[in-house]
């Protein structure tokens, strides 16, 4: 018993589990109780204390029962499994303490009976609780049940020996002591097994903690991935918004420039048109008058052909070269007429191109728009680029004329830059063609310029992408072109080869739907 007490006392200091402390107290009390019953305390410890010598067994029995109850509460976790039974235990404690109070009042026989009945009832109560808890699969309760049954069998054998039902021998004489020893050993095994239970619970708890940590790690990882995806999406959205704002800003600036250009060209065309009309309107009567004067001159010359005294006049006529002068005047008038016609074409082209600021959907002559754009870009092409027209007989197209003129200007300007970059001041050619197929009109602008490789072609319509030097382009021309063509419910196709040139093919519907016009 002393070995068991020291062993469990050492475990208590290792684990700090109060169950071991109550068990050590229980072992010591059981040992003292057994020593009191066999008279060892009366002849040793309480030899000179007659009252304690005669009453020690009674008090130690009560305290042992209370220590056994408190140990059982902690060993099988009664508060968690059977909280109601705690009240019954407290009642048994009161009965045992009441018996001790009665004993102090010199009523030893009554006190003995009370403690005897209380301790026996309490032992049976503990047995019932242990059976119920053990039935639920509690390993500590099973150990405690076996140990408690062994202890009770020792007490029963000891009592049956006193009553004469069992023979008096060493086994029955020390039955209570043997039962207590067996109980202490089995409970020690149970406590040792509890360490294994603690270890298993700890391992299970650690496994759950590790699993939870892994779940948390996975959750955090997923959250990080989700957050990174959202950040990427938001960054992409912000980048697209930023690009859209830049593109819109540039388009607004370009539109404002083109609108100003339209107003400027309209004003210039108007101012030029007045003196041009004056020149054009006076050229026919001037030619007519000169022809009439020439007829009169020819008539005079035929009549005075043989008149004497006009030799000096004839010499002057020959010296001046009247026939050459008359022909020269005709040539001068022809040049003036050609210049006036060309100036009229330029003014008409400017007036057509000046509609860039119009935002209404209307029908327009695509061929006229192309010609007017070439007129406006005349300085880019003159004496450098040869323009070849293949304009078909196409119907009027429902569109935004100013926007399409902006498309033609961007494409023709890029074509002029490409051919001059490859051919210099001669050899550059641009072909402008139009055709109709059903309800679709096709516009082709082809050049024999530098051409583009596949990498450049894949990014050609990308906003802010340009192959020109810094300061020569914004990289928005073709992006704006694509946007305008899409706004017209059409599409644009690029075919290009390095060193051969590029061809842009625009396809537009002749008529726009009502839904499209509203959405546009």
List the helices and strands and how they pair.
Layout: H1 2-15, H2 18-37, H3 40-43, H4 50-75, H5 78-81, H6 85-104, H7 108-135, H8 139-163, H9 170-173, H10 175-303, H11 311-320, H12 322-353, E1 362-364, H13 366-376, H14 378-381, E2 385-391, E3 397-399, H15 401-423, E4 428-437, E5 440-447, H16 454-459, H17 477-487, E6 491-497, E7 501-509, H18 514-519
Parallel strand pairs: 2-4
Antiparallel strand pairs: 1-3, 4-5, 5-7, 6-7
Helix pairs in contact: 1-2, 2-4, 2-10, 4-6, 4-7, 6-7, 7-8, 8-10, 10-12, 12-13, 13-15, 15-17
| Helix and strand pattern | HHHHHHHHHHHHEHHEEHEEHHEEH
| Biggest pleated-sheet summary | 5 strands, mixed
Radius of gyration: 61 Å
DSSP strand tally: 7
Task: Give the helix/strand class.
Answer: alpha+beta
Spatial sequence of strands, sheet with the most strands = 2-4-5-7-6
For the record, give the distance between the C-alpha atoms at the N and C termini, rounded to a whole number: 101 Å
Low-confidence stretches: 514-520
**In one word, what is the shape?**
rod-shaped
Estimate percent helicity: over 70%
> How many helical elements?
18
Q: How would you describe the overall organization of this protein?
A:
The chain contains 18 helices and 7 strands. With 520 residues, the protein is of the alpha+beta class. It is rod-shaped. It has helices spanning 2-15, 18-37, 40-43, 50-75, 78-81, 85-104, 108-135, 139-163, 170-173, 175-303, 311-320, 322-353, 366-376, 378-381, 401-423, 454-459, 477-487, 514-519; strands at residues 362-364, 385-391, 397-399, 428-437, 440-447, 491-497, 501-509. The protein folds into 2 domains: 2-212, no CATH class; 359-520, Histidine kinase-like ATPase, C-terminal domain (Heat Shock Protein 90), CATH 3.30.565. The longest helix is centred in the middle third of the chain and has 129 residues, at 175-303. The model is unreliable at 514-520 (pLDDT under 50).
């Amino acid at each position: 018993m002393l070995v068991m007490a020291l062993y469990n006392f050492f475990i208590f200091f290792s684990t700090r589990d109060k169950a071991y402390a109550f068990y050590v107290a229980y072992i010591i009390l059981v040992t003292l109780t057994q020593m009191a019953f066999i008279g060892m305390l009366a002849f040793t410890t309480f030899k000179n204390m007659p009252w304690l010598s005669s009453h020690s067994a009674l008090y130690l029995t009560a305290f042992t029962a209370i220590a056994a109850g408190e140990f059982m509460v902690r060993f099988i976790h009664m508060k968690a499994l059977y909280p109601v039974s705690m009240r019954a235990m407290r009642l048994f404690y009161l009965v045992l303490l009441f018996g001790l109070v009665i004993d102090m009042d010199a009523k030893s026989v009554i006190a003995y009976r009370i403690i005897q009945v209380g301790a026996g009832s309490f032992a049976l109560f503990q047995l019932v609780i242990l059976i119920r808890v053990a039935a639920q699969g509690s390993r500590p309760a099973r150990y405690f049940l076996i140990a408690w049954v062994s202890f009770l069998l020792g007490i029963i054998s000891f009592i049956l020996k006193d009553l004469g039902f069992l023979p008096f021998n060493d086994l029955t004489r020390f039955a209570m002591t043997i039962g207590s020893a067996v109980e202490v050993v089995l409970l020690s095994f149970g406590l040792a097994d509890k360490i294994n239970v603690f270890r298993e619970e700890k391992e299970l708890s650690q496994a759950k903690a590790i699993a939870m940590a892994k779940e948390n790690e996975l959750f955090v990882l997923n959250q990080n991935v989700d957050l990174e995806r959202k950040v990427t999406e938001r960054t992409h959205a912000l980048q697209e918004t930023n690009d859209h704002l830049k593109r819109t800003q540039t388009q607004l600036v370009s539109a404002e420039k083109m609108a100003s250009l339209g107003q400027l060209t309209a004003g210039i065309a108007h101012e030029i048109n007045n003196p041009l009309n004056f020149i054009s309107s006076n050229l026919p009567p001037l030619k007519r008058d000169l022809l009439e004067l020439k007829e009169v001159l020819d008539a005079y010359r035929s009549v005075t052909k043989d008149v004497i005294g006009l030799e000096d006049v004839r010499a002057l006529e020959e010296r001046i070269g009247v026939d050459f002068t008359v022909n020269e005047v005709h040539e001068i008038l022809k040049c003036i007429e050609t210049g006036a016609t060309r100036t009229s074409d330029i003014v008409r082209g400017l007036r057509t191109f000046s509609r860039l600021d119009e935002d209404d959907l209307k029908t327009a002559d695509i061929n006229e728009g192309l010609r007017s754009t070439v007129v406006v870009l005349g300085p880019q092409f003159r004496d450098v680029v040869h323009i070849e027209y293949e304009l078909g007989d196409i119907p009027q197209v429902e569109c935004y004329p100013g926007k399409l003129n902006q498309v033609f200007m961007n494409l023709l300007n890029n074509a002029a830059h490409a051919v001059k970059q490859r051919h210099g001041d001669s050899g550059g050619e641009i072909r402008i063609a139009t055709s109709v197929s059903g309800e679709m009109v096709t516009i082709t602008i082809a050049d024999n310029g530098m051409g583009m490789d596949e990498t450049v072609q894949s990014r050609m319509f990308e906003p802010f992408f340009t192959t020109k030097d810094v300061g020569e382009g914004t990289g928005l021309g073709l992006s704006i072109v694509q946007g305008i063509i899409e706004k017209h419910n059409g599409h644009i196709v690029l075919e290009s080869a390095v060193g051969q040139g590029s061809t842009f093919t625009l396809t537009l519907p002749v008529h726009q739907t009502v839904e499209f016009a509203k959405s546009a």
